[in-house]
Amino acid sequence: MDRWSAPAGREQSRFPGAGGGLETPARERIAGVQADSYRYDFEPGAVAAWRARRFLKRRGLGRPPLPVALHLYSRGSPSKRWSPESATEVTRILEGQRFLVLGYKRDREHTRPLENLPNVTVTCAGMRAQAEMLRRCALFVGIDSGPRHVASAMGTPVLCLFGPRPKSLLPKFPNEEALEVNELCAPCFEETCPLGRDCMGQIRPERIAEAIRRMLIRSRSRTDGEQTSPANPKAPRR
């Protein structure tokens, strides 16, 4: 049985990004009420865990160093999309890092440019299996969409890229950082840019790569501390 847990006294939603509690912080902040951070827990199930482990193991991603997950595409909001060209440049800058790109079969054209990169693996698995893969990633990097919420639910640190919507009006998850567009017209809340601009393209690949480096160093330092702590003699198994 899937289990989503929300803070006591808050609305609850079965799936991240499906309304309910995840929209509450935006409404509260607009109303002048300070909303705290959110934490959701999700158990995809044994079958999804087995499929995720098998997929990652066959592609050499089943053991440390853990991959960084990327999510680029929004079907309903073109202005939120992270271009394959920008994501490709990030993987080239961080050529020693392995990446796992989350995609969908019907949107395959958007992730196809990354499929032949030497340090990139693309998955079009279902949501449950992708959730388990996210549990086994060092970091999630992507746009504000469903996979961002799932990554937080699985306890994976998040680097979210914000363009037409401001991060201040969206839920703040634990272990999350954000990069925003530096444009006078942003945020605009438009699904498609009326000016024809590549809004997300203003977040340069070099800036994204530097944020990934910083978050990975912090995450690995925290993991090393857990490994050497007397209260945690063994490393946590992912």
| Class computed from helices, strands and strand pairing | alpha/beta
How many domains make up the 3D coordinates? 1
Looking at the structure, what is the overall shape? globular
What's the quaternary structure here? single chain
| Percent strand | 5-15%
Helical percent range?
25-40%
Instruction: Specify the CATH homologous superfamily.
Output: Glycogen Phosphorylase B
CATH-level-2 architecture: 3-Layer(aba) Sandwich
What features would you describe in this structure?
The chain has 238 residues and is an alpha/beta fold. The protein has one domain (35-225): 3-Layer(aba) Sandwich (Rossmann fold). It is 32% helix and 11% strand. The chain is built from seven helices and six strands; from the N terminus they run ααβαβαβαβαββα. A six-stranded parallel beta sheet has the order 3-2-1-4-5-6, with helices on both faces. Helix 3 links the parallel strand 1 and strand 2. Helix 2 crosses helix 5 (127-135) and helix 3 crosses helix 7. The longest helix has 24 residues, at 205-228. Mean pLDDT is 78; it is low at 1-35 and 227-238.
Helix-strand layout with pairing:
Elements: H1 24-30, H2 46-58, E1 68-71, H3 84-93, E2 99-102, H4 108-111, E3 120-123, H5 127-135, E4 139-143, H6 146-153, E5 158-162, E6 176-180, H7 205-228
Parallel strand pairs: 1-2, 1-4, 2-3, 4-5, 5-6
